[in-house]
Design goal:
With 445 residues, the chain is an alpha/beta fold. It folds into three domains: 135 residues, 3-Layer(bba) Sandwich (FAD/NAD(P)-binding domain), CATH 3.50.50; 144 residues, Guanine Nucleotide Dissociation Inhibitor, domain 2, CATH 3.30.519; 100 residues, Orthogonal Bundle (Guanine Nucleotide Dissociation Inhibitor, domain 1). It contains twelve helices and 21 strands. It is globular, with a radius of gyration of 23 Å. The termini are close together.
Length: 445
Amino acid sequence: MDESYDVIVLGTGLTECILSGLLSVEGKKVLHMDRNDYYGGESASLNLTQLYRKFRPDQQPPSQFGRDRDWNVDLIPKFAMASGEFTNILYHTDVTRYLEFRQIAGSYVYRDGRISKVPSNQTEAVSSPLMGIFEKRRAKKFFEFVQGYDFNNPATHQGLDLNTVPMTEVYKKFGLEPGTQDFVGHALALHLDDSYMTQPAKETYERICLYMNSMARYGKSPYIYPLYGLGELPQGFARLSAIYGGTYMLNKKVDELVYEDGKIVGVKSEGEVAKTKAVIGDPSYFPDKVKKTGQVVRAICILNHPIPNTADADSIQIVIPQKQVNRGHDIYIAAVSYAHNVAAKDYWTAIVSTIVETSDPEKELQPAMALLGPIAEKFISVSDLYEPVADGRADGVYITKSYDATSHFETTCQDVKDVYKRVTGNDLKVEGKVKKQEEGGAGAE
């Protein structure tokens, strides 16, 4: 291992694997290590035995759940927006050739005590119980405004310059009710809280357009999801890195980060030092260089039925906007099933997540748990959220952020782009596909 690398990456979470794939494609010599013996780190997918070993080490999985190999349970639920940044990265790197995606059947929002499908077209919008007849007219005018808005043509602005006016002004202009504002801000624009209301409306406009474009791509919902679970994604990027000469070492513990004059010069493992000028890694490898920003609580629930009131959908996302349940953060439900090769036949997994606000995190999930119907089994986890205290330019150590409570990849992509720019000095460009290189030649050790 006494070799020199352009970049050493620690941890095989999705963010780290995307970065090692992108850097390998650009010709950087990458070494990728993980103390675990499986890919995915925090974002792994586990079979039943692994799931019980993690949450209930003293128990065996019950026989009614079927075969171990039928299960790929995500520890962190995330869907990809069909036209989002993550899909652009997949397309750009051609990692899609290792994966098969399936559409998520529906996107739902919680309002006034019940869930309703987020309308996917004009017909659904007209019949949606989310709004009364007059509010539907106002909402229709709002969406027509969004679709017709052109930053370069003031005639389309209706007196609103989205570069400067806050979202509150836009809502006011169209007279949208608080419940509709919740729906637009949290189920369409996917904001994490209400701080967006006082920010310039441009970002919210762009997020709504992304949602609409993603919806238009396949119809039923804006989300897609890989067959066999999210654990396939880090492996796809690992294969990409290996094709371009990246070296992978699983089950390899990091004994020491080696510095000279305050700058990283290598990583020591089992008595050997791999030299490098840059290290990328997840927060667990750098406890002294990160700060805790909060906690996220997740409940992994196994169900033997579809979620009630979702037209027996094989997969859905439900957003519970914070104000609907008197909270400061939204609650998310991401459900997938045997249709995605992640559960035994006739089983679903629903993962409920939110940012912790009280000393009783599990109780905070209650409004969402109540929507699931009978739960066959549940596993609760509370994870600390970390982010780096420095940008890494001074010492060459670039640290990724923990995965938040959202059930989509857009925030993860922001982190990838941010770290990429700090490491390379350039913005990440994902237009068109990278040139294919033939498989073989390099690979995992």
